[in-house]
Give the backbone structure.
Amino acid sequence: MAGCPSRCRDGLVKLIQSIQRLLTGTLAKDKGEDELEMTMVSHRPEGLQQLEAQTNFSRQELQILYRGFKNECPSGVVNEDTFKHIYAQFFPHGDASTYAHYLFNAFDTTNNGSIKFEDFVMGLSTLLRGTLRDKLEWTFHLYDINRDGYINREEMTEIVRAIYDMMGKYTYPALKGDVPQQHVDAFFQKMDKNKDGVVTLEEFIVACQE
């Protein structure tokens, strides 16, 4: 994307890889310096105090995440092509583009074709530190491709195929062509309690908790 060249993509890869170190408290950053840097990008997030109230991250953790997000991508936003490039580096033997597309949409809660720092950190907060229900709701919305409040067989099939494409041809043991459909059938057998052909959020949560 314009304003986010290859050094941006490399920087965001480093950001993702640093998340575990962040959670162990091994990264540190001066508060004043971070706030000064926030004035130098074209998209500035909401105040860190507000994000601290909305997420499960401390102010220091948000400062560290913000520095990593903006240092290599001065525009302050990530588009889908950049996100796909980042994700592909973690699955060199497969095609992660389709799954990355669905994952990008799950982070892009405003449907505007880009992920801002706020979008990124809110999703990250849910996935890393949310309650079990929070995580299950986020996952449900990832699978609910058309966002109609239900998961149907077509949506689940697309997700499962995207996962197998991402895993790649070097998966051992080798995957047979009908394996994705078998997984979809097993999913609906367990999740679709009333057998109406779709899975609701509550059905999904109950089945996962069981």
